[in-house]
Write a structure and sequence with these properties.
Blueprint: H1 8-24, H2 33-49, E1 54-65, E2 68-80, E3 85-93, E4 99-106, E5 110-115, E6 121-125, H3 129-133, H4 147-158, E7 165-169, E8 175-182, H5 188-208, E9 217-232, E10 238-251, E11 256-268, E12 285-287, E13 300-310, E14 313-328, E15 331-340, E16 353-358, E17 369-372, E18 378-385, E19 390-399, E20 405-407, E21 416-419
Parallel strand pairs: 6-12
Antiparallel strand pairs: 1-2, 1-11, 2-3, 3-4, 4-5, 5-6, 7-8, 8-9, 9-10, 10-11, 13-14, 13-21, 14-15, 15-16, 17-18, 18-19, 19-20, 19-21
C-alpha cells in the first residue's frame, strides 16, 4: 500500500495508534480476547502473504484538530498473488481542501506510475520476470525483524486494558470486537508513550511538510478517548478495523487542542478482485528505463535541509547535497555530502560524505548501492524518483532476505531531495 511521503509519518502514527486500539481490547467471555484478536491478525497477514489468491485493501485516514480536518488520505490497493500484479490509487487532502492523487500498476513485465502534479504516465517495461515477481507480493509485518520484541512491548502496555472490551459472536460465526476507554481509564504509561510519540510525529511532519497545519502541541498531552472495533469473519480473517484516538494538549500559547486520529481498514473482494492493465491510448506517456525510473534528465544537484527541533522551534542547521553525475546504460553514479553550520556540530555529529555507483537492473530483486557511513561501516542505500524534479534517497538499509528490507532511520534525516536550479 503506497502513501505519499509527505503524509507517511502522520499516517503511520495513526495506524500504530489504531492498531493499538484494535488489539488492546479483550473479553473474558471468550477466554483471552486479546490473544484471540492478535492471533486472528497474524492469521490474516499470513493468508494475505500466502493463501489468498487476490483481494482488495481499502484504507481511510483522517486527522482533525478541534474537529477541523487537517489531513485526510484514502488508498485502494488491489493485489493478485497468482498473476503477481498490483494496482494502487491514493488521494491526499490537505486543510485547504485541495487534493493530490497518485496511481500505480505493476506486474512482472510492466510498471506504470502517475502522480497528481504533471498528469503524465511513466512506463517501464521489464524483461526479467523473476526479478519483478517478488516485488508485487504482500509480506506479513509479523515476520519482520524485531516484530517479536514489539509484540512483547504491546503485551506489556496493554496490561489490564484487556478487561474493557465487548465481544459479540454472530450467528454466521463472525466475531465483533469493540471497546472504548475514557481519560480516567488510560494508564499513565500509555499516556507517557503517547505523549512521546505524538511530539515526535509533529516534529517529523513539520520537517517534511513546510505548510503543515498541525498544531505544535507542547504540554499537558494525554489520551482523552479511545474507541475501536474489529470484525473477524467465520474463516478467521479480519475484514474491518476502525479506530479513533483523541489526544489532548496545549500549544506554546496555552491554547487547548483535541487532535483526533481516525483510521478505517477494509479487506474485501477476496477471490474476486480483478486487476486490469491500464489503457494508455491517447494518454501523455513517458517511457523510462529500468534504472529505478531514473533517466538522464535526473542528472544534476539536489538539496535537502537538515532541520532539528531545539528550544521548542524548528531550526535549519545545515544541508544535504545529492548529485547525480550520470545515468547511462542502466547505471547511476553520484555523490552525497552533508554540511552543518558552525555551532551545531554537536546536534548532528555523524556527517556523511561518499560517492556511489548504482545499477538497479543488476538481476537482484532488491537493488542497492554500498557506501561507507561516518563510523566507517559499510551500508546499503537506494534511490527513486519522487515526483517532478525530486528524488528520494534511502540510507541505512538493512537487507533482511532476498525479497525484503528495512530502514534504520537516522535522527533528523529526511530523504526527500529537491532539484537545485542555478
Amino acid at each position: 500500500m503506497k502513501l505519499t511521503k509527505k503524509s507517511i509519518t502522520v499516517l503511520s502514527f495513526t495506524i500504530g495508534a489504531c492498531l493499538f486500539v484494535s488489539t488492546a481490547f479483550a473479553d473474558t467471555l471468550l477466554g483471552s480476547g486479546y490473544d484471540r484478536l492478535k492471533g486472528s491478525a497474524k492469521n490474516t497477514a499470513a493468508q494475505m502473504e500466502k493463501g489468498l489468491n487476490n483481494y482488495t485493501i481499502e484504507a481511510l485516514f483522517t486527522m482533525k484538530d478541534n474537529n477541523q480536518t487537517v489531513l485526510q488520505a484514502t488508498t485502494v490497493n488491489k493485489i493478485d498473488m497468482e498473476k503477481q500484479a498490483s494496482e494502487n490509487s491514493t488521494v491526499d487532502q490537505g486543510p485547504d481542501g485541495k487534493t493530490t492523487s497518485n496511481y500505480s500498476y505493476t506486474d512482472k513485465k510492466l510498471s506504470v506510475w502517475k502522480n497528481g502534479t504533471d498528469n503524465k504516465y511513466y512506463v517501464t517495461e521489464f524483461s526479467n520476470d523473476v526479478n519483478r515477481a517478488a516485488r508485487n507480493r504482500f509480506t506479513s509485518p509479523f515476520n519482520d525483524k524485531g516484530a517479536p520484541e514489539i509484540e512483547k512491548l504491546f503485551d506489556a502496555l496493554v496490561g489490564n486494558l484487556k478487561d474493557y472490551v465487548q465481544v459479540e459472536e454472530r450467528a454466521d460465526g463472525a466475531k465483533v470486537y469493540s471497546g472504548s476507554l475514557s481519560e480516567a481509564q488510560v494508564p499513565a504509561v500509555v499516556n507517557a508513550v503517547s505523549s512521546f510519540g505524538f511530539k515526535r510525529m509533529i516534529s517529523d511532519h513539520g520537517r517534511m511538510e513546510k505548510d503543515s497545519k498541525l498544531p505544535e502541541i507542547e504540554s499537558d498531552i494525554f489520551v482523552k478517548k479511545v474507541l475501536g472495533t474489529a470484525v473477524e469473519n467465520k474463516a478467521g480473517i479480519v475484514e474491518n478495523v476502525t479506530g479513533d484516538v483523541t489526544l489532548s494538549g496545549k500549544d506554546k500559547n496555552g491554547v487547548q487542542h483535541d487532535l483526533t486520529l481516525n483510521a478505517v481498514f477494509k479487506l474485501s473482494d477476496i477471490g474476486t478482485t480483478k486487476i486490469i492493465i491500464p489503457d494508455l491510448t491517447g494518454a501523455n506517456v513517458e517511457k523510462v528505463n529500468q534504472s529505478g525510473g531514473l533517466s538522464s534528465k535526473y542528472a544534476g544537484k539536489y538539496r535537502s535541509n537538515i532541520i532539528i527541533e531545539k528550544n521548542g522551534k524548528f531550526v535549519r542547521i545545515g544541508e544535504r547535497i545529492l548529485e547525480i553525475t550520470s545515468v547511462e546504460n542502466d547505471k547511476v553514479t553520484g555523490k552525497y555530502n552533508e554540511t552543518v553550520n558552525a555551532g551545531f556540530e554537536a546536534d548532528y555529529p555523524d556527517k556523511y560524505n561518499f560517492n556511489f555507483e548504482y545499477n538497479p537492473n543488476d538481476g537482484k530483486s532488491i537493488s542497492t548501492f554500498t557506501y561507507v557511513n561516518a563510523k566507517g561501516e559499510q551500508k546499503n542505500g537506494r534511490i527513486n524518483p519522487n515526483g517532478l524534479a525530486k528524488i528520494y534517497l534511502d540510507l541505512e538499509i538493512e537487507i533482511r532476505d532476498k525479497d525484503t528490507y528495512s530502514r534504520n532511520n537516522r535522527p533528523y534525516y529526511d530523504g526527500e531531495f529537491n532539484r537545485i536550479f542555478e
